């Protein structure tokens, strides 16, 4: 996909999108380690910090994703809107999850929210892959970008 949100010819959004997913997956793995009775008491703290870092990265990823979405036409634009909507739900879910963890949140509930967040991200990633499989959905006027 051609987009003005790129480095050379490589779109920025797909490069960055792996970061929040990886951080949230790590947070889930920390929760599982803690829930399975690991004697290390640092798992919940590490889960909290990786979750917060994932939220920060999600905000960074959203900018180039919005630029890409605005360039799509037709059915791809609809797919992008669904993808963005799911991602917004995931971000809201992780904000709630983070808030629960800063208080006396139930560890079972926070683990469930993390599993739900990863499940939604898998659906969102699948939709993103559907958009990436389409060759050049929205050509960019290269002359206009060279003049800018």
Structure, described:
Keywords: Membrane, Transmembrane, Transmembrane helix. This is DUF2231 domain-containing protein. InterPro entries: DUF2231_TM. The chain crosses the membrane at residues 12-33, 45-62, 74-96, 108-127. Residues 10-132 form the DUF2231 domain. The chain is mainly alpha-helical. The chain has one domain (6-147). Helices cover 77% and strands 3% of the residues. It has five helices and two strands, in the order ββααααα. It has a two-stranded antiparallel sheet. A hairpin with a 2-residue loop joins strand 1 (6-7) and strand 2. The longest helix is centred in the middle third of the chain and has 29 residues, at 43-71. It is elongated and about 60 Å long. The two termini are 20 Å apart. The model has no long low-confidence stretch (mean pLDDT 85).
Q: Looking at the structure, what is the overall shape?
A: elongated
Question: How many β strands by DSSP?
Answer: 2
DSSP strand (E) fraction?
A: under 5%
**How confident is the prediction overall: mean pLDDT?**
85
Which residues sit in consecutive blocks of at least 5 with pLDDT less than 50? none
Structural class: mainly alpha
Helix tally equals: 5
Secondary-structure element order, N to C: EEHHHHH
Distance between the termini: 20 Å
Radius of gyration: 18 Å
The main sheet orders its strands as 1-2
- The number of distinct structural domains comes to 1
Helix content: over 70%
Instruction: Report the sheet with the most strands, covering strand number, pairing sense and barrel closure.
Output: 2 strands, antiparallel
